[in-house]
Write a structure and sequence with these properties.
The complex is a heterodimer. Chain A is mainly α. Chain A has one domain: MetI-like fold (Orthogonal Bundle), CATH 1.10.3720.10. In chain A, 75% of the residues lie in helices and 1% in strands. Chain A is built from twelve helices and two strands, in the order H-H-E-E-H-H-H-H-H-H-H-H-H-H. In chain A, helix 4 packs across helix 6 and helix 6 packs antiparallel against helix 9. The longest helix of chain A is centred in the C-terminal third of the chain and has 39 residues. Chain A is globular and about 75 Å long. By secondary structure, chain B is an all-alpha fold. Chain B has a single domain, classed as MetI-like fold (Orthogonal Bundle), CATH 1.10.3720. Chain B has eleven helices and two strands; from the N terminus they run ααββααααααααα. In chain B, helix 1 packs across helix 11 and helix 4 runs antiparallel to helix 5. The longest helix of chain B is centred in the last third of the chain and has 38 residues.
Amino acid sequence: MSRPRHVRNALMTGVFSLAGWVAIVFIFLIFLFTFKETTVVLNVEHMKAFFLANPPVWQPTSDIPKLSLIPIILGTLKATVVGLLFACPVGVAAALFSSEFAPPRLREVIKPTIELLAGIPSVVMGFFALIVLATWLQDTFGFVYRLNAVNAGLALGFALVPIVYTISEDGLAAVPRAHREASYALGATRFQTAWKVVLPAAAPAVFASFVLAFGRAVGETMILLMAGGNAAITSFSLLDPLRTLSATIAAEMGEVVVGSEHYAALFFMGALLFVITFISNTVGQMVIRRMSRRMQGAAS
Amino acid sequence: MRKVKDRVFIALLGTSVLLILAILVVLIANIAYHGARQVTWEFITQPPRDGLMAGGIFPAIVGTAALVILMSVVAVPLGVATAIYLHEYTPAEGLTLAWRRFKASKGRPGRGRLLARAASALLATVTRSAVANLAGVPSIVFGLFGLGFFIQFIGRNIDRVTQPPGEVLWGQGSLLWAACTLALLTLPTVIVATEEALRTVPQDLREASLALGATQWETIRRVVLPGSLSGILTGAILGISRGAGEVAPILFTGAAYYLPYLPTDVTDQFMHLGYHVLILSTQSPDVEATKPLLYGTVFVLLALTFLLNIAGVLIRTRTRSRGSR
């Protein structure tokens, strides 16, 4: 038995065990360093200014800085809602079609196509929304503002479709064959089986796909920065330009004084995004894990 | 009647697939139609001129390539090591079972080992959920983290020790910090793909190697890694393709609006294709005049990411079909 071999083995075990900590350490560091930079604004007065200021205005660089987050949170919500309203039905319908009705050869085409859509960089999607989609929508529907929540939300929706599709499709495919056969045996048609048996059985996965798409939508930056119109206005209309948390960070962080109130406010937005996406991701992952465990149990 | 209704509904579902397909086709066709004709030899080998209104995108191509290479140097070894830990060093039975076995072993010898197994399974579970969460952190938050951690914390502290007072070398945006930030973002992609690749290596091979007297590291080195190389490669390529298109993480960590020179050091700032697209489409004084350049840049960026993507998917499909044979 040669010793160096075993020393090397022990050494490599140590190295790999260390690597096991990397992801945990960095999640913790992201949390720590995002919050660390917000300390300037972590107090009651600033929270009041962020959430309760009346009128709610975001003008961080005016003589008396106005730091209401309300218009920006509203903008984020508007874009997210439009994006999900597009991506959820389309993504689930496509998943249902490809798992239940598409012939195998067609399915082999649909999957890579959607992967291709997922591979489009968000800056390219933002460009497309800014140059092509916005013009088309304005010419077709006569919008007053070229860049608005409908335009930005739709482009965001294009980017969300792959998430909804992939996770829903996994869930639908995991539904045991016996469910379908039982339904056919009772005289249900193919569509009735897909709609009333398979889809409800895969409901947790579909729900998880919506939650994960929501997390992605809230954090998406480039599409909203380019196609949202960048106006921090408190408006509930989907036809007004908007500005999201992510786009505000992206647009203003470059010119802000490090350590200032404005700087801390931007980091606060980042911390908010981190917390929201962390929660939605944890929930989504949990639902997926529980469902896959149940399906394994049902299949065996 | 029921049959007809069935058909109508199924057709409706199929329409959504067509809609997705149509969006993709319109997007690609539009960019290819307007973009491909811009891509001349001059465009890809010349720097921008006249305040970004003319010339080419050579520095942005070089910057993107340098960034992506540096990023993979950081992300691939780290991601592969994490995946090896998760798949080769943690108990395959999972947390619940490992814990139950420990609890059921009351009074028997060798409980310490079972407890260690349970602890290791716990770490694996936490790491897995950390990886899943890392994958969901918004890219702009990675940018903030890169600014707050790599530049303001690590960079500034390196400067305090190595530079004369007042001099800033590491504590500012640079290729290195942008690459580290992006590496963090692509880490989950690499980890997940590598773990999937490790799973394709049959357990028998590992056991045969161990039975012949090889240590665990020798088994990984000579049996597991060679057997999963193409899967790891796929993960690396898909990660790189994702990283190449991301702009939000590099906004404050080193991307430059315009640089007359190419980056020569990891502390240099750099131009970037995606960032160039953002600048050309939002900061241009004359949108119509820059449109051709913009389309050309988008085309190059999209072609780059698609080629990487297709290469990754092709390698994966080939490995999968070989594995199932």
